[in-house]
Amino acid sequence: MMESGFWFPVRLSLEVASVSSVIVFMLALGIAGWMKGRTFPGKQVWETLCMLPLVLPPSVVGFGLLILLGRNSWLGQVFEWVFSQPVVFTWWAAVIAAIVVAFPLVYQMIKTGLESIDPDLEDAARSMGAGEVQVLWFVTLPLAWRSLLTAYTLGFARALGEFGATLMFAGNIPGQTQTLPTAIYIAVESGEMGMAVYWVGMILLISFALLSVVHRIQQKPE
Fold first, then answer.
1. Cα 151 to Cα 161: distance, rounded to the nearest angstrom
2. What is the pLDDT of residue 1?
3. How far apart are CA 195 and CA 207, in angstroms?
4. Exposed (0-12), middle (13-18) or buried (19+): which is 52, by Cβ within 10 Å?
5. How far apart are CA 6 and CA 183, in angstroms?
6. By C-alpha distance, which of 100, 114, 99, 91 is closest to 56?
7. Residues 153, 213: contact at Cβ < 8 Å?
8. Using CA atoms in the order 96, 101, 104, 105, what is the torsion angle rounded to 10 degrees?
9. CB atoms inside a 10 Å sphere around CB 161
10. How confident is the model at residue 3 (pLDDT cuts 50, 70, 90)?
């Protein structure tokens, strides 16, 4: 019984982190790439909004998602009409919560990496006839690979450890939306300390491995 109950939160957390980390990486890369070198009215406000989930309590983020995508919102109603079920308390709710909380960290890391590229190198490529897409793919991204890989890895780790927003938006339904952090919380609340210890050990092991990867990326010579 322990074996069957133990592995579901582990598997679900890895699935949610895998999907959300890819989505948040592509989203953050697109926004950071578009914002790079641009100035326009309201840019500071936009960047503040991008970073806001980093400082807000996760419960506030979860509440915001309930308001934005709940059954009473038009976005939530569109989702329910398309997929014949509400987004709240589903697998996708856990993914969305992970995307929102991981985005500021990934965005800031990618932004820093892109801004660290010498603009003279990009200008040199343009002067030789390269278009903006070619400059991005053959100059900017290869030079920023260390920051990009670090951003993805940290985004995966952040999504894996998301708790507050996930609990409010996706709930804690065993066999459906119970991730590792929520499983640990419920296990401690119900006095199942042995199971909580095993889950804590699992998430510590995964997190340690991810941070080791980040350390190796940062230490790897050019």
1. 15
2. 40
3. 18
4. middle
5. 9
6. 100
7. yes
8. -120
9. 20
10. low
pLDDT confidence band for 65 (50 / 70 / 90):
very high
pLDDT, tens digit, 9 for 90 and up, residues 76-90: 899 888 888 889 999
Please answer whether residues 177 and 9 qualify as being in contact, where contact means their C-beta atoms are separated by less than 8 angstroms. Answer: no
Distance CA 107, CA 47 (A): 10
SS3 115: helix
Q: How far apart are CA 157 and CA 182, in angstroms?
A: 16
The pTM assigned to this predicted structure is 0.90
- In the block, tokens 């592509």 appear at 26
Entry field: residues in the chain:
222
Specify the DSSP element, H or E, that contains 65: helix 58-69
Report whether 162 contacts 101 (CB < 8 A). yes
pLDDT in tens, 114-169: 988 888 888 888 888 888 778 888 888 889 899 999 999 999 999 999 999 999 99
Residue owning tokens 């980040």: 214
CB proximity list for 11: less than 8 A, separation 6 or greater: none
CA angle in degrees (0–180, nearest 5) for 109-113-116:
140
Q: What is the C-alpha separation between 107 and 97, in angstroms, rounded?
A: 16
